[in-house]
Amino acid sequence: MQVTTRKSPSAVSSGLGNDLSGISPSNAAFLGKPRRLLIDGVWIDAISGRTFEVRDPSSDRVIASVALGEAADIDRAVAAARRAFEDSDWSRMKPGDRERVLHRIADLVERHAGELAELEAIDNGKSIVMARHVDLKHAIEVWRYMAGWPTKLEGQTLPVSGTLVPGQEYAAFSLREPVGVIGAIIAWNFPFLLATWKVAPALAAGCTVVLKPAEETPLTALRLGEIVLEAGLPKGVLNVVTGMGSTAGAALAEHPGVDKITFTGSTEVGRLVVRAASGNLKKVTVELGGKSPAIVLDDADLDKAIPGVTSGIFFNQGQVCCAGSRLYVAKRHFDRVVEGVAERAKAMKLGPGLDSSAEIGPLVSSVQRERVMSYIDQGLAAGASAVAGGRQVESPGYYVEPTIFTDVSEDMAIMREEIFGPVVVVKPFEDLGEIARLANESIYGLAASIWTRDVKKLFTLAPKIRAGTVWVNCHNVLDAAMPFGGYKQSGWGRELGREAVYSCLESKSLCINYAM
Ligand code: NAD
């Protein structure tokens, strides 16, 4: 097996920036104007009048200017969301009418999916093909799935015995009511998708929302603001405040006027959000980091497993919370799997999001590139071998080669910590008992994949894996109906499915004495 080590940034270079001259006229117009905050159904400047720049990760060029919302803007947005919750008809609207508004949003997202994918490619760096056929396709499904919920949010008839006060007769019911004002804070890796995961179930439940997108990727959240207005969502039901995490995000997390905070991001910031939320004991959902194992058992179909685990880590440049970043391979297949994954990684075409033939795009920011490179350096210094990649690309864009490490041990940072980039560590294992222990040796528990054709091994191993999702012979598969979230320090609560909607609802018991 050929071993390469990192010496200097690779010479692969220029020509990796997006050509923005051919983007759609609507996106050109959208980027051409400073973008403002959506509060109470109106686009307004931040109170301070300040803005921040948004960069194209493929070229480091500034592509947009966006309002810098801060605590005072969050105050205004929360007040608007509160008014909309208390005074507008949204939370009391007939379920069928609320469904119709959500379907109109889904229709508009579908109509504008191509433009949204293009915007995502420029803003985040991801492939336009993946943005259209993964992010937007799934987002449309989620809007439609959540649109179906308002007419199905049923309570129960409760069989109470009513024995405490003799002679009385009671009937009791449980009702489902919206939690109220929801603050939603999201990461940058799937900007439109994560906004959808938060906003669609909240609206289905009859809540109102203040959305704070990541500062790296605010653009499609702002387009979502335009879309919901066009769909006829009453003013103030969705407010979008762009800004920094330490100011706007922190203000939202601790705001006493917010009833629930739903956060997607790092475990480190998730902890801050939980602490901030404790002031008024608002409800909390946190979807956090991961270091997910992909496990190739000795009976796996390697023709499926090798491409499967390769895309399991390198999809979206490895900037996926559930990426299969720890690859464990049964000892007898170790060399073949490492060679197969390395061959594919080396052949991947690097290029900007708008190049539909590119397979690896830039990372989201220069900060993220530095973070990933520092992990690669630490891995090499600790004695791991880079059998592919290991270098950043000399270019104004934030490219890092897909990197595969072997000769890794459990105490290395690259083995334990979430890198959130195109870096995988590969380790052999001997038997099922050992692999269950290795897979669980992490503070995270977001997901795992098992590659096997043996049903007995599958049902022996899957229950032992402490993770919110276990995929078998696939990785990174999401569905609107399938709850997604983490065990351990990967979070509290679940996105998607019934659980996402119910997390936006309170349960009220209605107890009626009818023997008066
Ligand atoms: P991050 O935690 O740095 O930022 C996430 C969001 O929090 C951003 O909007 C940011 O502005 C905001 N923020 C930052 N400081 C804050 C504070 N003090 N108070 C409130 N908000 C604050 O994460 P990131 O770098 O944007 O995203 C990468 C992380 O997200 C990874 O750890 C990844 O695993 C995780 N992630 C998890 C899921 C999931 O569903 N479990 C999905 C996507 C990403």
Provide the fold topology.
Blueprint lengths: L24 H8 L4 E3 L2 E3 L6 E6 L4 E7 L3 H17 L7 H17 L1 H12 L3 H20 L8 E3 L11 E9 L2 E5 L5 H14 L3 E5 L6 H12 L7 E3 L4 H10 L5 E5 L2 H11 L5 E5 L5 E4 L5 H13 L11 E5 L3 H14 L18 H16 L3 E4 L14 E4 L6 H4 L6 E7 L2 H9 L3 E2 L1 E5 L3 H7 L7 E4 L14 E2 L2 E2 L4 H6 L2 E9 L3
Parallel strand pairs: 7-8, 7-10, 8-9, 10-11, 12-13, 12-18, 13-16, 15-16, 18-19
Antiparallel strand pairs: 1-2, 3-4, 5-6, 6-22, 11-21, 14-15, 17-20
The structure holds nicotinamide-adenine-dinucleotide (NAD).
Nicotinamide-adenine-dinucleotide binds next to helix 8 and helix 9.
Give an account of the 3D structure.
The chain is α/β, with parallel strands linked by helices and about 525 residues long. It has 2 domains: about 5-290 and about 495-500, Aldehyde Dehydrogenase, Chain A, domain 1; about 295-490, 3-Layer(aba) Sandwich (Aldehyde Dehydrogenase, Chain A, domain 2). Helices cover about 35% and strands about 20% of the residues. The chain has 16 helices and 22 strands. The protein has helices at about 25-30, 70-85, 95-110, 115-125, 130-145, 190-205, 220-230, 245-255, 265-275, 300-315, 335-345, 365-380, 415, 430-440, 455-460, 495-500; strands at about 35-40, 40-45, 50-55, 60-65, 155-160, 170-180, 180-185, 210, 240, 260-265, 285, 295, 325-330, 385-390, 405, 425-430, 445, 445-450, 470, 485-490, 490, 505-515. Helix 5 packs parallel to helix 6. The model is unreliable at about 1-15 (pLDDT under 50). The structure holds nicotinamide-adenine-dinucleotide.
